[in-house]
Amino acid sequence: MTVAQKILDAEKTMGSGKSVESFTIGQLSRETGCKVPTIRYYEQIGLLPEPGRSAGNQRVYGQQHLSRLAFIRHSRELGFSQAEIRQLLELSDHPDQPCAEINAIAQKHLDEVNHRISRLESLKAELERMVHACQGGKVEDCRVIDTLADHAHGNCLTAEH
Amino acid sequence: MTVAQKILDAEKTMGSGKSVESFTIGQLSRETGCKVPTIRYYEQIGLLPEPGRSAGNQRVYGQQHLSRLAFIRHSRELGFSQAEIRQLLELSDHPDQPCAEINAIAQKHLDEVNHRISRLESLKAELERMVHACQGGKVEDCRVIDTLADHAHGNCLTAEH
DNA sequence: CTAATGTCTCTAGTAACTATAGCTTCAAGA
DNA sequence: TCTTGAAGCTATAGTTACTAGAGACATTAG
Ligand SMILES: [Zn+2]
Ligand SMILES: [Zn+2]
Ligand SMILES: [Zn+2]
Ligand SMILES: [Zn+2]
Asked: Does residue A54 sit in helix, strand or coil?
C-alpha cells in the first residue's frame, strides 16, 4: 500500500471530510525506517512531540510527526548526535532566521567526521603493520602480542594512540 | 611507616622473599596512563586480576599487574573491544599454542576498522556536499535543512545511509 | 468469535567508562 | 605529635542511543 493510499484510507476510516492524515506507530515505523521502540524513545526524550491518542490509548500521529521523525532519522543516518539534532530541529522551526548556525553545526560535524577518519586511518596503519609482522609461529614469538604488550610503543608507527 | 616499609610489608604478607616491585593504584595509573577509576573498573569486570591489599585495605599491585594493564591499555588504544582483549589475554597466557587465533582477531579488527572508515568516508562526502550547497540565506531556503528533511534522499549521493 | 498481530507501560540491559558522595588512610610539615 | 592535604576506599548513578523483555490491553482478519 502506498503512502497516498494509506492517507486516503486513514481519512476514510476517520469519516472526516477534512484531509486529516494519521498514522499508527507501526505505520510511522514503516514509513521512516525507525523501529517502534525507537519512536517511543524519541518521544520520551522529547525529540518527537507527544502525539494524540485513540480511544484505546494508542498513539495517533499526524503528518508533522512523520516529517519530524523523517528529519530525525535522516540526521541520525548522517551521524548527527541527539544534541545536534535538537539544535537543528529548533533552528528549522524558525524559517526567517539566517541559516548560519545550521551550517556551523553541519560543518562542525563534518570536522568531527574527518577527525574520526584520520584516527581510524592511523589505527589501520598500526593494525596492518602488526598483522603483517606475524609470522604464524607460536604465541610466545607472536609479533602481535609483542606489539600489544610493549607499552613503550617500540613496534608502533607513532605512540600517539 | 614509610611507603617502602609498607611495600616490604605487603611483600612479606604475600609470602614473597624475592624483590617484587609493588605499586599503589596511583602509581599504576601513572605508569600506564589508565585513570584510577578505570583500573578499578577493569578489576570489577574481571579484566585485571584482584591485587593484594595493604594493612589499610589499599590495593597493592605487582609487576604482572603492570604488564597486564599495559597490554590492556595498548589494546584499547588500538581500538580492540573488551571482549577481544579478553581473548587476546587468554591466548597470550598460552605461549606454546600457535598464534593463528591471535592474528585472526587482529585481522578481524582491522576489517572492522576498514569498514568504519568507508562508512565515515561516505558520510563525509554527504556532509561536504550538504555544507557546500548552503548559500547562507534564511533557514527557509537552507539546503542543509532541505537535505535533512528529505527522507527520499533526493539530495543525497546514495540513500544507503 | 477467535487467533494473530499490534500496541501499551515499565524495567533493565548494552559498551566502556566517568562522576559524585562520603568515608578512611597515608605522608609529610610545624 | 598533631594536622592537613592528597590519595584511596565503596557504592551508586550518569553517559549515548538505543534494544530487549514481561505481561496486559487493543485491533483486525478470517
Ligand atoms: Zn603471530
Ligand atoms: Zn603503540
Ligand atoms: Zn544554509
Ligand atoms: Zn540521505
From this structure: coil
Q: Which CATH architecture has domain A3-97?
A: Orthogonal Bundle (1.10)
Q: Going by DSSP bridges, is the β-strand pair A52-53/A59-60 parallel, antiparallel, or unpaired?
A: antiparallel
pTM: 0.85
Task: Write out pLDDT tens, residues B84-129.
Answer: 999 999 999 999 999 999 999 999 999 999 999 999 999 999 999 9
- Nearest-by-CA chain A residue for B70: A151
Q: Domain segments of chain B: what residues?
A: 3-97, 101-160
Which pLDDT tens digit goes with each residue over A63-96?
999 999 999 999 999 999 999 999 999 999 999 9
Angle at B104 (CA atoms; ends A146, B119), nearest 5 degrees:
105
Cβ contacts of residue B66 below 8 Å, gap of 6+? B23, B28, B31, B32
Nine-digit cell string for B89: 589475554
- Gap from CA of A149 to ligand 2 centroid (Å): 9
B104 CB within 8 Å of a chain A CB: no
